[in-house]
Amino acid sequence: MAALEMATVAVGLCFLVGFLFKAFQPRRSPALARKALVAVQTVPPLLHFGAGVSKRYLTVCRELIQAGWQVTLMTNIDAKQDAELGGYIRDGSLKYIPVRGVRLNCPDGMVTFMDLTSFNTTWSLLKELIWVGEYDICILEDSPWRILLLMLLRALGVPSVITSHTDSTHLATYQQGHWILHRVWELHMHAALVADMHTTVSNQFAKIIRDRYHVPVHAVWPTIRWSPVFAKPVAEFADEAAAMRVTWESKLGFKPTTLFMYAGRWAFEKRIEKLFDAIPEGCALVVVGDGVNGYAENMVQKYGHLKHVYFQRRMLGGHDLRVAYAAADVFVSASRFETLGNTVIESWCAGTPVALQPAQGHLEFCKEGVNGFFVDYDDVDKARARLAEISDGRLWTPDVLPELLSTGERFRSANFYEDFSRIVLMPAIQKSHRRKAAIVESLVRLGAGVGALLAWPIVRIINRVGYMVFNAFSEKYKFTVVPTLGGCP
Q1: For residues 404 and 375, is the Cβ–Cβ distance under 8 A?
Q2: Which of 198, 145, 154 has the alpha carbon at shortest distance from 450?
Q3: Alpha carbon distance 195, 159 (integer Å)
Q4: Would you list the DSSP string of 148-168?
Q5: Which helix (DSSP H) or strand (DSSP E) does residue 453 occupy?
Q6: Radius of gyration, alpha carbons of the chain
Q7: 75: closest CA among 58, 91, 87?
Q8: CA 241 from chain center: how many Å?
Q9: H or E segment and range at residue 106
């Protein structure tokens, strides 16, 4: 405890000196904003764990760098392992700061998150925000205890953007968890009240957040193209798609009337097993992707004998994935709580319609009989009948779906940086700049700084004691503080 007290005092003094130095320092005009700190826990190569979120922050880093921003990526993931991020790091266009992470084995498999209360992470944040400084924006992910970083940013006057990606109430870890976990999650969501800009990825999920937690959602992200190949014309991939389809038919052992495909992370909340019995006779399903939990392994062992299902167990890169979508006739998803569903956007970019469970993010852009279909996979007989109707009538073709091609063109031609800057970045920066350097603002910032300083040791102790208690007495939850910086997963 003596070491903890000394470290806390040292951190406190560093923060106090830095706060006094930065508190009234003039800030750049929003029009000159060009330096961003991206503090996230999910980036490539973490596609097996959080594919959609990883792709989202890869896109943010790429688009900011290409627009001329100075970008610092602070993460518990070894970003150098990813080909694209590693290239940016090596050529100096991306500053990479590896920090401490925590690994959690739970009913949902393995989860990794940034350890915001570690000495290393705290020091790295203070160093970047105070001594290096001149950050125009901090983009923060769905990290546990993000309230601490938000209070620090508020104290230093750095505009903040946080994004809520996950509906954790549907995860087994939450449903089987202790009431304390539920209260911590509610605190996590209410941290949005401190942020300059609280965002999410769909209007559907934004409504759920507002209704459930009574916190504001200021903006919805524009859709992403995590790989540039998804901007290319459909016709460019026709030959490769035909060859991939021949390969799939060879693996299946027959030529299906309609080829359905699921692509993405394999996890229990995706409900992939709901699709198997819904596939009509004479049709086939190709399941592309992978997962790191027991669900993925059990699914292959349990359903690997099905003649109408082919498991391509590999997370595909952008080009191969774009070809895979084009090789299929219809993309299918039985998930009931996608906050958006990036795979749906990817499928449309490839010119392939979708047949989705009518829930949450699936409702954002899909229009029944216009650019896709809604199928209730909870009723297997009705689902099979509906997919048979789609297959027999070839209802999935552009001739029948009037907005299939225009929907794909809309997402292929979207300018993410312009939309993200207009919807998210500039409003957050302008909101921060509108605050007057008056007595009230100074008191608010001082209060946020004192609150962060006092809360940090308390939260750290709670975290460490909690990890030890769970590790000692729980079979379902095991925490590991990863010793290597940037060493997750």
Answers
A1: no
A2: 154
A3: 8
A4: HHHHHHHHHT--EEEE----G
A5: helix 439-473
A6: 24
A7: 58
A8: 28
A9: strand 101-106
Q: What DSSP element (H or E) covers 197?
A: strand 197-200
Q: Percentages helix, strand, coil for the chain, rounded to the nearest 5? A: 50, 15, 30
Closest by CA to 8, choosing from 482, 460, 467, 476, is: 460
Opening angle at CA 280, ends 274 and 286, nearest 5 = 60
As a whole number of angstroms, the distance between CA 236 and CA 302 comes to 37
Distance CA 146, CA 233 (A): 40
Which sign, positive or negative, has the C-alpha torsion 19, 24, 25, 30?
positive
Q: How far apart are the first and last CA of the chain?
A: 29
Residue 162, token pair as written in the block: 């946080």
pTM for the whole thing? 0.89
* Token code pair at residue 282: 């004479």
Pairing of strands 109-114, 94-98: unpaired
CA dist., res. 406 & res. 412, Å (int): 10
Residue 421 CA to residue 44 CA, distance in Å, equals 23
User: How many other CB atoms sit within 10 Å of the CB of residue 32?
Assistant: 9
The length of the chain in residues reads 489
State the amino acid at position 485 in one-letter form.
Answer: L
d(CA 479, CA 103): 6
Q: What single string gives the DSSP state of each residue in 42-103?
A: --TT-HHHHHHHHHHHHHHHHHHHHTT-EEEEEESB-GGGSHHHHHHHHTTSEEEEE--EEE
Q: Where are the beta strands (DSSP E) in 317-386?
A: 330-333, 354-356, 372-374
| Rounded Cα gap, residues 406 and 340, in angstroms | 19
Question: 3-class SS at 116?
Answer: coil
Q: Alpha-carbon distance 444 to 309, whole Å? A: 59
Question: Phi, psi (5° rounding) for residue 344?
Answer: -65, -45
Averaged pLDDT, groups of 10, the chain, 489 residues long: 54 54 55 84 64 88 96 94 92 96 85 92 93 92 91 94 87 79 89 95 95 95 93 96 98 97 90 96 96 82 95 92 97 93 95 96 96 97 98 97 97 96 96 78 90 94 92 90 89
> How many Cβ atoms are within 10 Å of 214's Cβ, its own excluded?
10
Nearest-angstrom CA–CA distance, 248 and 243: 9
Identity of the residue numbered 165: H
Q: C-alpha 298: how far from its chain's center?
A: 25
Alpha helical stretches, state H, 223-314: 238-252, 273-276, 294-303
Q: Find out whether 162 and 38 touch, Cβ atoms under 8 Å.
A: no
- Rounded Cα distance between 59 and 67, Å, is 12
Strands 478-482, 109-114: pairing is unpaired
Determine the pLDDT at residue 181.
81
Q: Which residues contact 185 (CB under 8 A, 6 or more apart)?
A: 168, 169, 174
Please tell me the distance from the alpha carbon of residue 286 to that of residue 199, in angstroms, as a whole number: 34
